[in-house]
Amino acid sequence: QCFTVKGVLHMTEDLTAKRRVETRERYDRWINRSVGAGTLSFFVAVAVWIGTNEPMVLFAGLGLYWLGCIGMAVGYWRSPVPVRDELDRQIEREASTTTLTVLAVVTIVALPAEVVLNSTGVYTAPAALRGAIWAYMLLILVYAGAHWLTGRQYA
User: Fold this and answer.
1) If residue 4 lies in a helix (H) or strand (E), which one and from where to where?
2) How many CA atoms lie within 13 A of 128 on its CB side?
3) Contact call for residues 45 and 62 (beta carbons, < 8 A)
4) How far apart are the C-alpha atoms of 154 and 138, rounded to whole Å?
5) What is the pLDDT of residues 89-112, one digit of tens each?
6) % of residues, the chain, pLDDT over 90
7) What pTM did the predictor assign?
8) How many CB atoms lie within 10 A of CB 121?
């Protein structure tokens, strides 16, 4: 941890670790601000568009949103250290598991019910609800395919 060069005590590992954390935090702030500014710009543009009905406002908002997405990608790409640490990855894994569990439960219950109720004429779900249920099913299928392919890489 410590070594001396001509009588000067150096703590390289501590300084390196501290710099890595500071760099990670700096790039994380950049990424979050880029996404936040882009998203906020889009919502402001939608609000202004509702009041003015001017389509260029929507295009400007969309452009600023995409610019924020590009800023996020640049932040990840240019960072000399991994932006997400072990704790971030663990939180993401747990949140993903919870999200997929909720999606699976909703899909397992709602999809057959929607098909039966719609087919028998007992209840016709609104198009948006039907689309959401089927989109959940598609999302689960995409996840299952990605999981299978990723598992094949490690087999």
Assistant:
1) strand 2-5
2) 0
3) yes
4) 25
5) 999 999 999 999 999 999 999 999
6) 81
7) 0.65
8) 7
